[in-house]
């Protein structure tokens, strides 16, 4: 009896949880199901919450669209090189901050925190003009540099935490045993750091993968250098009212990010990405 | 896939713990000093500093310069722009349209941030009260919504609010609001504004709720017990025990959300392009429109600098809060 009463008392709580879950998931669910529905079901007077017939036709339309493979490749290329560059640079910087004592260390960290909050939305105009002056407009390396700077501060902050969490004594023991400092880092700290590097780079990857504003304004004339977000934003101009294909394209684009976040859920929910990655 | 505090990653500890419990920092001083010598740390930090100088400081300085010049399409092509002092700012500040945009920016910011903080706090309290399985389900749903790329979410919302086949109009019609039959959301200013607010709130609540929830888990349960023994009501406990404890994180999230309002640029640009009319034009949108669409790079830069100033004011609040949080970690 008492469990029944308990259950009753918790009913409003669970109702609220259900409402929240539905509100969070419905847009994602609707995107995916629309992508699998045939056109007549998409454009019917009464929408189907569970698709009766499934079709892959929209995915075919999206993948066969002009330049899809090219933009996919561009996106991967830009994101991977930006994240890799950020990782290498951040590894050095965060090691210096976490393991060494030097004049200017605090100021350096302050700089990193300020850079993390950089007003990128307000820098579009000067970056456009600088790229134009230096002949970097319409080129993927420009985007790589911008994304590198967008992800770098977060990468340093997080890696610093990971390095600081690895006991320094391990390294010192190796050095006592005759390892050089570089060797000690490579063979002791680095393997322990690998999971941290992995998680950090995945978050950087998502940030760069999603970026739209710079990709939109720095790649103008040379359409072959566009990236996926820009392509997706113009998808409707290409396909008009084909919402099935638009949703299929959105699904294909969103999938990597959704998978990464679900894989890293443990990190995400522990406040790991606080202040760095958003949507 | 556990979500308890014990399993949290190292950086979370750096962010959320109080300065007194930071064992990592307490190495013997002698070791530190021995390791301090040489140019190594400067060499390791140099690429970061150089990157910041070229990719952040230089563009910012360039924007300030352009905002003080007569810089239009002609100057973009030919160069040698003329220095005109504060004339661009004068032009802006005497323009009624600019002030409308500023007022709209503040309205947009206020509505978004209030809704986000309110809903996020409620959701965080909800997660805390749920059992393990429910909590995991809710957290997973939040993470999925959070993971949704901005452009994908924007496209989906356009589809949800589609005038003819949109699920929202269908639902509203069947709930008895017949005026929503084929209601063209994006043709009316207030309606488009509402959709953008809904989109931003939907995308922002997960991060805020999860962060507030991880702050809630650091409140010792003895505090609640003693408050309950003293006969405090639920609302009273929240006001006198819970909120003061999570206040630092709450303020951090609050200022982040204020600053991130400017990131709504992307959603607005893709969804409405600032329209219909001017109904959804906020400062960053106005700046880019002025610069890149009307080729008034000088006025656009000036407008950008105004928004940087606004953001800087909030940033001061953010950093003061953060240094109180992890001043020692620096």
Q: How much strand content do the residues of chain B show?
A: under 5%
What's the tally of helices of chain B?
15
How many individual domains of chain B? 1
Number of strands of chain B: 2
The CATH architecture designation of chain B is Orthogonal Bundle
The CATH C-level class name of chain B: Mainly Alpha
Molecular shape of chain A: globular
Strand content of chain A: under 5%
As a percent range, the share of helical residues of chain A equals over 70%
Structural class of chain B: mainly alpha
Mean pLDDT of chain B: 84
CATH topology type of the largest domain in chain A: MetI-like fold
N-to-C SSE series of chain A?
Answer: HHHHHHHHHHHHHH
Low-confidence stretches of chain A: 271-279
- The count of strands of chain A amounts to 0
CA-based shape of chain B: globular
Q: pLDDT average of chain A, as an integer?
A: 85
Main location (chain A): membrane
Domain ABC transmembrane type-1 (chain A): 72-264
Family (chain A): Belongs to the binding-protein-dependent transport system permease family.
Protein name (chain A): Carbohydrate ABC transporter permease
Structure description:
The complex is a heterodimer of chains A (279) and B (330). With 279 residues, chain A is mostly helical. Chain A folds into 2 domains: 2-42, no CATH class; 71-269, MetI-like (MetI-like fold), CATH 1.10.3720.10. Chain A has helices spanning 2-36, 39-42, 57-64, 68-99, 105-116, 124-133, 140-165, 168-176, 181-210, 213-218, 228-233, 235-239, 243-263, 265-269. In chain A, helix 3 (57-64) crosses helix 13. The two termini of chain A are 45 Å apart. Mean pLDDT of chain A is 85; it is low at 271-279. Chain B is an all-alpha fold. Chain B has a single domain, classed as MetI-like fold (Orthogonal Bundle), CATH 1.10.3720.10. Chain B is 72% helix and 1% strand. Chain B is built from 15 helices and 2 strands. In chain B, strands 1-2 form a two-stranded antiparallel sheet. Classes of the chains: A mainly alpha (279), B mainly alpha (330). The interface between A and B is large, with 109 and 113 residues.
């Amino acid at each position: 009896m008492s469990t029944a009463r308990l259950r009753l008392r918790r009913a409003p709580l669970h109702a609220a949880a259900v409402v929240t879950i539905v509100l969070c998931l419905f847009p994602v669910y609707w995107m995916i199901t629309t992508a699998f529905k045939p056109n007549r079901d998409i454009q019917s007077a009464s929408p189907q919450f569970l698709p009766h017939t499934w079709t892959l036709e929209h995915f075919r339309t999206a993948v066969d669209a002009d330049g899809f493979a090219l933009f996919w490749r561009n996106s991967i290329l830009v994101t991977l090189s930006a994240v890799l560059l950020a990782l290498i640079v951040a590894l050095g910087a965060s090691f210096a901050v976490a393991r060494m004592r030097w004049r200017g260390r605090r100021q350096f960290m302050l700089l990193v925190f300020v850079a993390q909050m950089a007003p990128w939305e307000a820098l579009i105009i000067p970056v456009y003009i600088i790229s134009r002056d230096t002949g970097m407009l319409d080129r993927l390396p420009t985007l790589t540099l911008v994304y590198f700077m967008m992800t770098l501060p977060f990468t340093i902050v997080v890696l610093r935490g990971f390095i600081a969490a690895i006991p320094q004594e391990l390294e010192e023991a190796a050095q006592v045993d005759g390892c050089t400092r570089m060797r000690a880092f490579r063979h002791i700290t680095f393997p322990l750091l690998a999971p941290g590097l992995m998680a950090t780079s995945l978050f950087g990857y998502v940030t760069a993968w999603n970026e739209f504003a710079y990709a939109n304004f720095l790649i103008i004339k040379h359409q072959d250098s566009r990236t996926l977000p820009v392509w997706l934003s113009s998808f409707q101009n290409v396909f008009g009212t084909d919402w099935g294909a638009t949703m299929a394209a959105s699904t294909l684009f969103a999938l990597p990010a959704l998978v990464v976040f679900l894989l890293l859920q443990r990190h995400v929910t522990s406040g790991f990405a606080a202040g760095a990655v958003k949507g | 896939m556990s979500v308890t505090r014990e399993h949290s990653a190292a950086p979370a500890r750096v962010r959320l713990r109080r300065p007194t419990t930071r064992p990592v920092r307490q190495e013997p001083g002698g070791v530190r000093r021995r390791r301090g010598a040489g140019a190594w740390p400067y060499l390791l930090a140099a690429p970061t500093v150089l990157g910041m100088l070229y990719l952040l400081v230089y563009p910012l300085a360039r924007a300030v310069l352009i905002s003080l010049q007569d810089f239009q399409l002609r100057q973009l092509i030919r160069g040698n722009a003329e220095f005109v002092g504060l004339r661009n700012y004068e032009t802006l500040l005497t323009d009624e349209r600019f002030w409308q945009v500023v007022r709209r920016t503040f309205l947009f910011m206020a509505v978004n941030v209030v809704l986000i903080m309110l809903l996020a706090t409620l959701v965080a309290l909800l997660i805390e009260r749920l059992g393990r399985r429910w909590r995991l389900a809710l957290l997973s749903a939040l993470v999925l919504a959070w993971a949704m790329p901005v452009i994908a979410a924007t496209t989906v919302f356009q589809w949800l609010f589609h005038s003819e086949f949109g699920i929202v109009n269908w639902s509203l019609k069947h709930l008895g609001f017949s005026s929503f039959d084929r209601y063209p959301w994006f043709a009316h200013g207030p309606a488009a504004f509402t959709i953008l607010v809904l989109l931003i709130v939907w995308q922002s609540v997960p991060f805020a709720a999860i962060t507030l929830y991880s702050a809630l888990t650091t409140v010792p349960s003895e505090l609640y017990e003693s408050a309950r023994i003293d006969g405090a009501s639920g609302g009273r406990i929240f006001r006198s025990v819970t909120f003061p404890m999570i206040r630092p994180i709450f303020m951090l999230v609050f200022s982040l959300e204020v600053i991130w309002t400017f990131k709504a640029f992307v959603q607005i640009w893709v969804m409405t392009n600032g329209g219909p009319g001017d109904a959804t034009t906020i400062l960053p949108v106005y700046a880019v429109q002025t610069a890149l669409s009307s080729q008034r790079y000088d006025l656009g830069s000036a407008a950008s600098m105004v928004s940087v100033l606004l953001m800087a004011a909030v940033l001061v609040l953010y950093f003061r809060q953060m240094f109180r949080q992890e001043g020692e970690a620096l």
